[in-house]
Amino acid sequence: MSVFLDHASTTTLREESKAALLRALEETGNPSSVHSSGQLVRSILEDARDQIAKAINCNRSEVIFLSGGTEADNHAIKGIYWQQIAKDPNRNIIITAATEHHALLDPAIWLEANQGAKVHYLRVESDGMVNLNSLQEFLTENHRRVALISLMTVNNETGVITDIQKVSEIAKPFGIPVHSDAVAAFGHVPIDFASSGLAAMSISGHKVGAPIGIGALIVRRDMKPESLLHGGGQERALRSGTMNFASAAAFAAAATASLADMDSREEKLGKLRDELENKVLELIPEAIVTTKGANRVPHNAHLIFPNTQSDSLLFLLDQQGISVSSGSACQAGVLGPSHVLIGMGIEENLAKACIRVTLGHTTTAADIDAFIAAIGPAVSGAIKAQALQN
Ligand SMILES: Cc1ncc(COP(=O)(O)O)c(C=O)c1O
Question: How open is the CA angle 10-71-55, to the nearest 5 degrees?
Fold first, then answer.
């Protein structure tokens, strides 16, 4: 038996996406070539761009295809920072939060270590919500020195939703560009780029049922971030390299399918998630639902089991055929507390004892039953393992 409850790390390939990929792979051509073969694959790419633009309500020219969320975040942070610093060398502050994904934090930290940037981290409450009053306060004092603001729409570990519209409203009077990593949001909550006030937004295909290795940075038309790559000048000269038209088609098909069933899926998954959390608390009253009460997505359960270690829990669940994670898959294998929970001010021994259970489009009630049957023995085993270590 194999039960996959780690859909935030990557979700099952959608049939529509696989079909679009296989269809596109039948064609030979480079989308930049002028001959008919090139034009044919260019039309596949441009159809995909139209579909992504429709899915998030942006202009088609604002969709820049690239390899995924990590690349999109790097382009956004470094590209906008370089654009801003070139206009005004005093604008060297990047505002973000310690609970962001490493794909966002690490480029900001790199700019600080190597390029004279300063990273300012906003206050995050113990339920994972970013304190937006602290943004307002900081900007009132320091807006002339701020290059950009970047806050994620949905946190990939806790599922907590940030009011990005409000972030844009706070930033607007100061004319500061706002980027949002919407990798964990796209396909799960409604996104409207045109009315968001954002300068840029990152999305990734494999989180909505496309293959791994395709994503997009949505870049407002008046923004001209400096490019990380130089070459053929494709994708508004923001992302040189032969365009991956087949993966773009697969991404567009997955995104369209994901949006078509978003409301009914999230409603169904919300009921399953609530059932899972309630049963866990009945079985293990010491367990903590980390973000209960916060505004969060319905398919995510983030749980802390005191006196355990995440890696023991993952191992003991995996032995029973259940795949979950302790947070971001990119951090898996790296021992230590979750940086997200530490950013929320949660004690280190609890931040080392968490698991993230994420449901997706293939999740069934039987998967939840299997998790419930496995969690008691896994927690008892992890408590024993922890006691032996102490
Ligand atoms: C919020 C968030 N941002 C960025 C990424 C990186 O995306 P990708 O795997 O497409 O590089 C992830 C992946 O886990 C994510 O959850």
Answer: 65
% pLDDT > 90, the chain = 95
Q: Which residue has the tokens 């930033």?
A: 171
| 181 Cβ inside 6 Å of ligand 1 | yes
Matching fold, domains 3-11+261-389 and 15-259: no
Strands 288-289, 300-304: pairing is: antiparallel
* CATH architecture, domain defined by 15-259: 3-Layer(aba) Sandwich (3.40)
CATH code that applies to domain 3-11+261-389: 3.90.1150.10
Q: Which phi and psi angles does 88 have, rounded to 5°?
A: -150, 105
Cβ-based neighbours of 369, under 8 Å, separated by 6 or more: none
- CB contact at 8 A, 290 and 347: no
C-alpha 30/C-alpha 28 separation (Å) is 7
Model confidence band, residue 384 (pLDDT cutoffs 50, 70, 90)? very high
Q: How confident is the model at residue 245 (pLDDT cuts 50, 70, 90)?
A: very high
Catalytic residue (one of 289, 330, 372, 385) = 330
Nearest to 28 by CA among 36, 18, 19: 36
330 is catalytic: yes
Tens of pLDDT along 346-369?
A: 999 999 999 999 999 999 999 999
* Domain spans, the chain: 3-11+261-389, 15-259
Q: How many angstroms is it from 36 CA to the middle of ligand 1?
A: 36
Q: Is the CB of 215 under 6 A from ligand 1?
A: yes
Alpha-carbon span 192 to 57, nearest angstrom: 5
For residue range 97-135, list pLDDT tens digits in order: 999 999 999 999 999 999 999 999 999 999 999 999 999
Mean pLDDT for 66-90 is 98
